[in-house]
Amino acid sequence: MNRTAENPQAAERRAKRFWVSLVVGLLGLQVVIGGVAITLATGDPSVAIVPDYHQAALNWDQHRAALSAPRRWGWQTQLDVSSTANTSGQRAIVLELRDGQGRPLSNLSVTARVFHQARASQAHHVALTETSEGRFIGSIEMARRGVWRLEVDVEGAAEPVRLSRTVTL
Description:
This protein is of the alpha+beta class. The chain has 2 domains: 3-43; 53-168, Macroglobulin (MG2) domain (Immunoglobulin-like, Sandwich), CATH 2.60.40.
């Protein structure tokens, strides 16, 4: 004899449990997928949010002027990063600045913001110290291989100066 024919109420209860469990299970799966998506979106170190992006966009002309200042003034700039790192992953950053006549530029405040292209949210800042006229040196952790971005700000000139370089290590 058929099992559902013997006890129709038990079969109905099993069917209700199955369909309710299926709906609740699918809703639960959707919540889990959403949680995983949020975790992946917010936990990825390669994602970088530019702080105060709106203000930076409004100041675009000043930013471009700072980037073009060395060329407009005829400055000779040489920005080098050591090809080898010490045991703690530190590399030397050397900046040489000369005016249009080749004379060293000194008495300037130089800072650098350095980050790996794959980890732009993990930027490091370093002040470069003037070791001789026109020569500024700093040390910063750059142990990871790959493409690095250096943004150097020079203050103390007639107007703000920014140098931007990409280095592959």
